Amino acid sequence: MSRQQRVALRRSRLTDAALELFGTQGYSSTSIERLCATANVSTRSFYEDIGSREALLIALVDRLNTAALQRLDEALARTGDQPLVVRVVESFRAFLSVTCRDRKAARVFFVEVVGVSPAVEEWRRGQRRSISGLLTREAQRAAERGEAESRSFHLFTLALIGAVTSLAQEMVHATVPGEAISVDEICDEIGYFIHSGFSVRPAVQPT
Questions:
Q1: CA 129, CA 17: separation in Å to the nearest integer?
Q2: CA-CA distances (angstroms) from residue 148 to 83, 189, 200?
Q3: Ranges 46-50, 90-94, 127-131, 148-152: which has the least confidence
Q4: Residue 120 in contact with residue 58, Cβ under 8 Å?
Q5: For domain 55-198, which CATH number applies: 1.10.357.10, 2.102.10.10, 1.10.8.60, 3.40.50.10140?
Q6: For residue range 57-74, what is the model confidence (pLDDT) as tens digits?
């Protein structure tokens, strides 16, 4: 293998180890030494290839986010002739099928990534802005078709992303039998939320 291939392989093994360890024992409880032992990578290679535990966390959530966005785009393409509510709900369902594919992924993506450092928070803001922009464009197209009220959707889409994040966090934290939350239940709530925020509001009749 070339040097680039060896580096890519080590990065992949370290990212896999991060998913396992951050997703089970948590980011703050996972040492670099433990990550390297799990990935079978030397600490010297870790610092040369990754640089820091923070950078490894960003690499991991970025990998999950990239795969989730691909699924989201596929859902939008598949539901091109459907109403806006259906398109957005199915897009989130596709996104969550990756980020919440198991408890480890959901814990890393929605819980462990919160409040780690300014760099990780900047990644989270960028990720939210990206999805917000996509949803806003979809809503604006729907408004042009008369399917949604014509207004600024920026704050609403950010609120929608915040609601999904909060529900996903509750799904991770739910440990009592009977209180478990499923992706389908999250998507049902998204549907109610979107119907209220995107639908055309009836004109107020003068009294």
A1: 28
A2: 10, 19, 5
A3: 148-152
A4: yes
A5: 1.10.357.10
A6: 999 999 999 999 999 999
